[in-house]
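ok so I'm stuck.
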Amino acid sequence: MGTAWLVVDAWFVLGLEEWGAQGRHVGIVKARIAHTDRVRATLILVLVTAVLAGLFRAYWTVLSQVLLALLAWELLVSS
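replied:
not stuck anymore, here's the structure
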């Protein structure tokens, strides 16, 4: 679910916000900052979920959440 949200946010939400800015630099920068904030919030949520899953010994959930956290981290680093 988290991976799908990151993909939809990156492709559609960020793309539509940049398209809606119609070349205005300020609008594009605001859209990218908002996207970065959303990804950062997702990263924090995923890491908290991974820690909770680790406490309850749900190893497959920990693995999936850590992989999603790596994806979110890569999106943050690349933007």
